[in-house]
Amino acid sequence: MFKSSSALFAATATLAPSLAAAFSFTFGSTPTQCQNATINIVGDDGVEPYNILILAYGHPPGGNEVRKIISHDWTGKSTSVEIAFPSNSQFVAVVSDSKNVGSGGTSVSVNVAASDDTACLPTSVTPAFYLFLGDGSSLEPPIDQCTDIRLAWSANASAPVSLIGVVPGGNSFNIDTSQGTKSSDGTQIGFNWTPDVPQFTDILLVAGDASGRGSGGSTGIINIGGGPKDCLTGTYPTSTPGTPAGGVYATNASGGSTGSSGGGGSNTGAIIGGVIGALVFVIIVLSGLLFYFWRRRRLAKRNHIKEKPDLADDPAAANHMITDNGDPHHQLPAGYEPEPFIVPPSVTSASRPQTPSSLTGTHAGVPPTAWTRRLSNNSSSAPRQSTDGGDSSSYAAFSDRKQFNGPAPLRPVNIIQHDDGGAVSPQGQDEPETVELPPAYGNIRPNAGASSSTPAPPPPA
């Protein structure tokens, strides 16, 4: 059973004219592990026989390199070749005709789809000879544009030896090996090569001999570094803009294409990323606004001072006073200060015990409204008793009483207090009954200090 897609890719893509490509090719089906892939020739400018060179690209999926370079020759407009590469690995294909290397174009990296068939996969790969770069101090030394580098191969290679520079998705080219010479120890044959390849170009070098192209193996991906530009004249190898050869872009492990020969790839990831970024931005903005209003409201509450209204007077205009303990306080306006109620003293007559006596509110030396006024804070005198004769001072004057600058004086009020008569003796049967009536208050004379226009108080109801 195959895990790859069963869809076939139509041979509709053609390679734009380039420096070396006189025709192009396409894959008619998805390259799948241990399955045959169809190769179709597009155009009539190629000269048979054709050759396709399939070489490993990138790191092997299992860590060990067991991918063997495939070189296949055929005649006609189409052929099929078995893809002996493991799934999830990549390769690059180069198609040539009998005239020029890479004349049919070079594909981009193609991913191999998975399948259950593993019979074609080799367990080890041993090239017929080896390719060496540089002075041997490193396995793959850097290659810079227009800077000489030594290319060499094993002396046991069967002549003629070929070297091919493969540019994925661009123009592959042949490197002349006719000027190679043997090393002093006779184990290598090589020469100095001046790469006329521009900076930043990816390139792979493939070695072959009489047994076929790729028999000497290939290098990994080498990115050309910077250097002099004097060799970059006329035409030189580079990546080809537009649709590369092969017609099918790299595929995923399940066989689905990751691109399209006629348009761009899917933008689903970019769309999702944009939506997520927009949501994060909106959340950040809303959080900032909420924090701003919350902090503003908190500061407003902190700076707000609740004041109780003064219904009596303007507190700024109140007079400040100092109490006995040194604490300041405000003096209330006239008419609003509290006044204590003073109970008048009980006065009894020595000659008439157990009988009610009257105590008038008008006494010598005491103003009529003395009992209705408040005492000052510094008043310490107390009222004194007097007899009912009325000609001696009954009360002490309030020496330190604060003058009251309030309303007009009130009219005099008479205060009558009745004394307890004691226990009631039982009356005999023959003793006449006595009925006591309250006074009629009809003979009340106006006080001498009161105004003549002040009417007498009405009798109690």
UniProtKB/TrEMBL annotation:
Cellular component aspect of the GO annotation: cell periphery; membrane
Q: Where is the composition biased (Polar residues)?
A: 346-361, 374-396
Q: How does it sit in the membrane?
A: Single-pass membrane protein
Show the PANTHER family listed in the entry.
MID2 DOMAIN-CONTAINING PROTEIN (PTHR15549:SF30), PAIRED IMMUNOGLOBULIN-LIKE TYPE 2 RECEPTOR (PTHR15549)
Chain segments annotated as transmembrane: 270-294
Q: Which InterPro entries match?
A: Immunoregulatory_rcpt-like
Q: What is its main location?
A: membrane
Gene3D superfamilies with a match to the protein in the record: Single helix bin (1.20.5.510)
Q: Where is the signal peptide?
A: 1-22
Q: Where are the annotated segments for Disordered?
A: 310-461
Protein name as it appears in the record:
Mid2 domain-containing protein
Localization in the cell = Membrane
Entry keywords, A to Z: Membrane, Signal, Transmembrane, Transmembrane helix
